[in-house]
Design brief:
Elements lengths: L24 E2 L5 E5 L9 E2 L6 E2 L4 E4 L8 E2 L4 E10 L5 E9 L19 H10 L12 H5 L9 E6 L8 H8 L1 H13 L6 E7 L3 H10 L6 E6 L8 H9 L14 E5 H11 L7 E7 L7 E6 L4 H7 L9 E4 L6 E2 L13 E5 L3 H4 L10 H5 L6 H9 L3 H6 L10 H5 L6 H17 L1
Parallel strand pairs: 1-14, 9-10, 9-12, 10-11, 13-17
Antiparallel strand pairs: 2-8, 3-5, 4-7, 5-6, 7-8, 13-14, 15-16, 15-17
This protein binds iron/sulfur cluster (SF4) (2 copies).
One iron/sulfur cluster (SF4) binds next to helix 10.
């Protein structure tokens, strides 16, 4: 069968061979941990500890405010040192709880369960909420809120995004290969929340044939779970593209996946659901990729949330030269960093570090009307025109040409022979519109 896919997209250099075959290694943090109170979409959490308190791994140190919010848990044992502003990945200073690690790794008592069916749907959702799980692919939407559908009977598909289409990133792949029981177990937990007709589909790109084979074998006797083989193409893992490729259903900017009977969660999120519900462990760890040609040891690591990027790079073996570009995330959708004094959050996926900043070296020239950006756009937009409207601050035209449907994937800029910063211009205009609506 032909691999499933969507219209548009690009195929950048994958860079996955650098880290994909090396097993995940655990890193131990140093003395100081910083827990940002806003690691999710929604209201920031509020501290429930005070200076001098002793905390254990898995202990809630900040509580959620309202339904679309998430608690924050300690990932080390130690003493609360105080409350400070710390920089997040986009350079804003936000509130954080600072904990001094005592290096003892004492944790709270975990309460694993054996039999899912002994619990109600509401009780399972409460466990997911209490564990502080958010969408770990980058969006950070609270998972309990996504799974708490008013009409669960309308959900036909739970899609597990195992595409990992972003270049250089391999943490989802490694988790899939190293602990398949978590992914399948976590998916069973999610399917338990919906009716029997709802099917789980594990979506994997065809550049990971060993993962496809493994999951086809492991799910062959699971009537509610199947594997979908996806074409290797960026941005295959974007929610709308995945839904279209697997089900043929279309989602636009004014809709949620649930409007077409689908929910999408990435591999790391499903693994966390397994740990929270079946093992009773709240979210306090993050598996991520350190890669790029400036890194001595490209590999996947598991670290406590709150550990600093700088420590991670040092413990991972450091740089082999002064990198010109460091990105939190992958090169297509990540955030360029000015420094590494940033704590790991729940949505942190990777650090990719490059000897050369190739984008900065590109010289922009005039559009040659080649149409490549149009072909590459998975949202069927006209990136060249939208970028022009953004440059001229013409919001009416930008909206008329559906600029808000852009998903900031960067496929248009990637293929542009004139090296125009199309995606950056369009994304900036989208932000401007969202800000004006908020005001
Ligand atoms: S216009 Fe937006 S959605 Fe289309 S290719 Fe560019 S960044 Fe991606
Ligand atoms: S890809 Fe670049 S040069 Fe080609 S039409 Fe689009 S903006 Fe113009």
């Amino acid at each position: 069968m032909k691999p499933l896919t969507f219209k548009g997209g690009v195929h950048p250099y994958e860079g996955k061979e650098l880290s994909m075959d090396r097993k995940i290694r655990r890193l131990r943090p140093g003395k100081e941990m910083a827990y940002l109170l806003s690691q999710h979409i929604g209201a920031p959490a509020v501290p429930v500890v005070k200076k001098g308190d002793y905390v254990k791994i898995g202990q809630m140190i900040a509580r959620p405010v309202g339904f679309v919010s998430c608690p924050v848990h300690a990932s080390v044992s130690g003493t609360v040192k105080g409350f400070e502003k710390r920089k997040n990945v986009v350079g804003e200073y936000v509130d954080a709880i600072i904990v001094e690690n005592d290096d003892q790794y004492v944790h709270v008592e975990y309460h694993p369960i054996e039999n899912l069916s002994a619990y109600t749907r509401r009780e399972i959702l409460q466990k997911i909420q209490d564990a502080g799980i958010v969408g770990m692919g980058g969006a950070g939407f609270p998972t309990h809120a996504k799974l708490s559908q008013n009409h669960p009977e309308d959900i036909d598909y739970v899609l597990v995004n195992g595409a990992e289409c972003e270049p250089y990133l391999t943490s989802d792949y490694r988790c899939m290969m190293d602990s398949p029981e978590k992914l399948i177990g976590g998916l069973k937990v999610v399917l338990y929340l919906f009716e029997e007709k709802c099917k789980g589909v594990i979506c994997i790109e065809d550049n990971k044939p060993d993962a496809i084979k493994l999951y086809q074998e492991l799910t062959k006797d699971e009537p509610r779970i199947s594997v979908a083989v996806m074409k290797t193409k960026y941005p295959q893992g974007a929610e709308r593209n995945l839904i279209y490729a697997v089900t043929g259903r279309k989602v636009n900017a004014s809709m949620l996946p649930a409007h077409v009977g689908c929910l999408v969660d990435n591999v790391a999120t499903i693994n966390c659901i397994y740990e929270a519900v079946m093992l009773g462990r709240p979210m306090s760890l993050r598996v991520f990729t350190v890669s790029g040609d400036a890194v001595v040891n490209p590999r996947n690591y598991v670290v406590p949330i709150g550990m600093s990027y700088k420590e991670i790079i040092d413990l991972a073996g450091g740089f082999n030269c002064e990198p010109e570009k460091i990105i939190s995330g992958g090169p297509m959708m990540g955030f360029a960093l000015a420094d590494l004094d940033i704590p790991v959050t729940k949505t942190f996926t990777a650090l990719t570090c490059f000897k050369k900043d190739e984008v900065a070296q590109l010289k922009e020239t005039a559009c040659i009307s080649c149409g490549r950006c149009l072909e590459a756009c998975p949202a069927s937009l006209m990136p060249s025109k939208l970028s022009d409207f953004a440059e001229h601050n013409d919001m009416d035209k930008f909206l008329e040409y559906n600029g808000m449907e852009c998903v900031s994937c960067g496929s248009c800029s990637y293929g542009c022979p004139a090296k125009r910063p199309l995606a950056a211009n369009i994304t900036a205009m989208r932000r401007k519109y969202v800000d004006s609506r908020r005001r």
